[in-house]
Design goal:
175 residues, Serine Threonine Protein Phosphatase 5, Tetratricopeptide repeat, 2 domains, mainly alpha
C-alpha cells in the first residue's frame, strides 16, 4: 500500500520516497494544534508509516520510538514510555550492536523511567550500563553523559548511599 497524498504521487512518478519525508515532526504538529496529545498522535501515525516504508527493525524506527517514548515520559505515562524505550533498545542492539551510542542513550532514558516507576534494582543496572557505554562512545564530558550521571547521582542520593554517590561522580566507568 502506497502512502497517501504527495508521497503517493511522487512514488507513482518513479521518484524516491525518503523515510524522513514521510514522517511528520512532532514540533510542527504541536505548534499547529497547540496540544501535546495531538503531537503524540501525529508522531504515532508517522511511526506507523515509517515502519511500512523501512521495516520494523530499522534504526530510524528506533529513533522515532524513542521520541514517542519521550513524549509519553513527559506526560508521566511511564509504563507506556518504558514499553517503547524497550522496543527502541531491542532495535538498536540488533542493528547497531550492544555498545553503540544510541543503545546508551536509550538505556539512560529507560533507567529514568524505571527509576520513576520504583524499579530501583533494574534502574541502577540500566544507569550503570548506560554510563559505561556513554563514557566509551561520546566521553565523560559530553552533556548527555553528564545528564545521565546526574540522574544516577540523584538515584543514589535518594537511596541514602553516600559512598555509591561519590563513586558515581568519579572517573568514567567507576560505578
Amino acid at each position: 500500500m502506497l502512502p497517501s497524498g504527495a508521497l503517493a504521487r511522487r512514488s507513482q512518478r518513479g521518484g524516491a520516497v525518503a523515510a524522513s519525508d514521510a514522517v511528520p515532526q512532532p514540533r510542527r504538529a504541536r505548534s499547529r494544534s497547540g496540544s501535546v496529545g495531538s503531537g503524540r498522535r501525529v508522531r504515532a501515525q508517522g511511526l506507523a508509516l515509517l515502519q511500512r516504508l523501512v521495516g520494523r527493525d530499522h534504526p530510524r524506527v528506533g529513533q522515532d520510538l524513542g521520541a514517542l517514548a519521550a513524549i509519553l515520559h513527559g506526560q508521566d505515562r511511564f509504563a507506556a514510555a518504558e514499553r517503547l524505550y524497550r522496543r527502541a533498545l531491542a532495535i538498536f542492539e540488533k542493528t547497531l550492536g550492544p555498545d553503540h551510542y544510541e543503545v546508551g542513550f536509550v538505556l539512560g532514558n529507560l533507567a529514568v523511567a524505571c527509576h520513576e516507576r520504583g524499579k530501583l534494582a533494574e534502574a541502577a543496572e540500566l544507569y550503570r550500563r548506560c554510563l559505561q557505554i556513554m563514557d566509551r562512545t561520546v566521553g565523560p564530558s559530553n552533556p548527555q553523559t553528564a545528564l545521565f550521571r546526574a540522574h544516577f547521582g540523584g538515584f543514589y542520593a535518594e537511596q541514602g548511599s553516600g559512598e555509591a554517590l561519590a563513586r558515581c561522580w568519579r572517573a568514567p566507568c567507576g560505578y
